[in-house]
Structure formats: structure tokens, C-alpha cells
């Protein structure tokens, strides 16, 4: 006599077969259907955390754009008494443009030995560098720039901005689709962009040292300005945002393994 089989759902969502024998005994039979693999989705709690991490990354992107677009990467200043008159000269430049400014000695802090700072009011003359057009080096206070280092710093900064755009696209797709798949690529993009920003600062500083070593006829005091400070903060913020995206992309929080697990009571 054929056994009567009853189809029952199992706990994992598959359909199982349970058969009743002739003597009343039940024999469990494994289900023949395969479980459908579900695509992980982003819940409301994860979405809020992703948006918060995205806001952190946007702050880093904003600081990067501000630093790259301004010309206050470094300030060069002659001594106040170098020209032996009532004025002195200072210069500041960035990746794309350089400016020289003539200041009144009376407007400068008496305790300051060099001319400046560059944000004091004075006659200013700004010109764009010709590194990217005809390949000419710039001359600042009889010192010649090394265009290869300046171009390398600019390329690193532009690649960093491109990686930020790609990371922002990944986060936007992840939030619109509701899947965490794009969080890891976004994490890679933001961490790499932060490292490239910091590397761009190092290369630019080497170009400044090469500029100062090209001629020693005029003594100059140099200091990195607020544009570099913006880039330094942006690099750290971008790396932190990338790490946050990497943590959110994991199926579990890293600290969950350290927490004691509750054993379910058995009856």
C-alpha cells in the first residue's frame, strides 16, 4: 500500500515531504525544492547610518574642492627690511595660479620678521601657470618652479576628485536600489581618494622645496597656508568615511562577535 505524503514547509522556507507509514510511523523526507537565494536589502536603520557616513564624506569632498580651487597652498615672503623702503613683497600660489602682493611695512606685525601674511590689503598681481599649456616654468622671486612636481601634484588631486565622484555615485545607487552591494566599491573610492589627497600635499611640498633650492639670491620665508590645511582635513575625513562604509557593508558589526551570545532555552 502506498504511503500518503503530506507537503509541509520547513523552517528555512523549503518545501519538505512527510510521509505516513502503514503502521502509523512518520518518516521525514528531505525537500526536493531548492531555497531561493534572497538579495540582502538595506533596512531603515542601515539607511540612516549610510546617509550619516555619506554626509561625512561630502564634508571631505567639499574641503577638497575648496583646497584644490584656491591658490593659498604656500606663502613666500621676503624680509621686511629687504627692499629698505616702506613696502615689502609676498607671494602665494597653488596648483593653478600664483599671486604676488606688495604690502605696507606699517601694516605688518612689528614682531614679525618677514613680510606678510598674504591676506593683508595690498596691491596684488595674479597669473595662471603655464605648466599645462606651453610647458613653461614660473619664476617667483628669481626662483624657478619644477613643473614636473607641480603637474604631478595637480594630477593626483584630479584623480582624487574623480574617485570621490565615483564613490558618490556608488552610494547614490546603493540608496536608490536599497542594496548594500555598492558600499564596498564606495569605501574603496573614498579611502583611495583620501590617500591621494595626502600624497598630493607631499608632492607639492617637495615642489616648494625644489623652488627654494633653485636660487639663493633672495632669502625667503615659506609656510604652508590654509588651502593645504583644508586638504589635510579632507584627506583624513575621506579615509574615515571610507572606513565607515566598509563597516556598514559587512553582514555583521565587528564588535558583535565580542558580545556574549544568548543560548535559547530548550523545553
From TrEMBL:
Membrane-spanning parts: 52-74, 151-176, 188-212, 224-248
UniProt subcellular location: Cell membrane, Sarcolemma; Membrane
Pfam families referenced in this protein's UniProt entry, alphabetically: Claudin_2 (PF13903)
Gene Ontology molecular function, alphabetical: calcium channel regulator activity; voltage-gated calcium channel activity
A biological process from GO: regulation of calcium ion transmembrane transport via high voltage-gated calcium channel
Any coiled-coil regions, as ranges: none
Membrane topology annotation: Multi-pass membrane protein
Gene3D superfamilies for this protein: 1.20.140.150
Keywords, ordered alphabetically: Calcium, Calcium channel, Calcium transport, Cell membrane, Disulfide bond, Glycoprotein, Ion channel, Ion transport, Membrane, Transmembrane, Transmembrane helix, Transport, Voltage-gated channel
InterPro entries hit by this protein: PMP22/EMP/MP20/Claudin (IPR004031), VDCC_g1su (IPR005421), VDCC_gsu (IPR008368)
PANTHER family assigned: VOLTAGE-DEPENDENT CALCIUM CHANNEL GAMMA-1 SUBUNIT-RELATED, VOLTAGE-DEPENDENT CALCIUM CHANNEL GAMMA-6 SUBUNIT
Function: Regulatory subunit of the voltage-gated calcium channel that gives rise to L-type calcium currents in skeletal muscle. Regulates channel inactivation kinetics.
Family named by the database record: Belongs to the PMP-22/EMP/MP20 family. CACNG subfamily.
Subunit annotation: Component of a calcium channel complex consisting of a pore-forming alpha subunit (CACNA1S) and the ancillary subunits CACNB1 or CACNB2, CACNG1 and CACNA2D1. The channel complex contains alpha, beta, gamma and delta subunits in a 1:1:1:1 ratio, i.e. it contains either CACNB1 or CACNB2.
Protein name per Swiss-Prot or TrEMBL: Voltage-dependent calcium channel gamma-1 subunit
Amino acid at each position: 500500500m502506498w504511503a500518503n505524503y503530506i507537503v509541509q514547509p520547513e523552517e528555512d522556507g523549503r518545501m519538505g515531504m512527510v510521509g505516513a507509514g502503514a503502521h502509523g510511523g512518520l518518516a521525514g523526507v528531505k525537500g526536493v525544492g531548492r531555497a531561493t537565494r534572497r538579495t540582502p536589502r538595506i533596512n531603515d536603520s542601515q539607511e540612516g547610518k549610510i546617509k550619516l557616513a555619506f554626509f561625512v564624506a561630502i564634508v571631505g569632498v567639499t574641503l577638497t574642492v575648496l583646497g584644490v580651487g584656491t591658490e593659498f597652498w604656500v606663502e613666500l615672503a621676503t624680509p621686511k627690511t629687504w627692499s629698505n623702503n616702506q613696502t615689502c613683497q609676498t607671494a602665494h600660489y597653488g596648483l593653478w595660479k600664483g599671486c604676488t602682493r606688495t604690502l605696507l611695512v606699517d601694516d605688518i606685525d612689528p614682531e614679525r620678521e618677514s613680510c606678510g601674511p598674504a591676506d593683508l590689503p595690498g596691491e596684488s598681481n595674479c597669473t595662471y601657470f603655464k605648466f599645462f599649456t606651453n610647458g613653461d616654468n614660473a619664476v617667483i622671486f628669481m626662483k624657478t618652479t619644477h613643473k614636473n612636481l607641480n603637474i604631478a601634484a595637480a594630477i593626483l588631486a584630479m584623480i582624487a576628485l574623480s574617485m570621490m565622484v565615483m564613490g558618490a555615485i556608488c552610494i547614490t545607487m546603493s540608496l536608490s536600489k536599497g542594496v548594500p552591494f555598492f558600499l564596498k566599491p564606495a569605501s574603496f573610492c573614498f579611502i583611495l581618494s583620501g590617500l591621494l589627497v595626502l600624497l598630493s600635499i607631499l608632492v607639492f611640498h617637495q615642489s616648494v622645496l625644489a623652488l627654494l633650492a633653485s636660487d639663493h639670491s633672495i632669502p625667503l620665508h615659506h609656510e604652508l597656508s590654509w588651502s593645504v590645511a583644508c586638504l589635510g582635513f579632507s584627506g583624513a575625513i575621506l579615509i574615515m568615511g571610507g572606513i565607515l562604509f566598509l563597516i556598514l557593508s559587512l553582514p555583521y558589526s565587528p564588535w558583535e562577535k565580542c558580545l556574549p551570545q544568548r543560548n535559547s532555552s530548550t523545553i
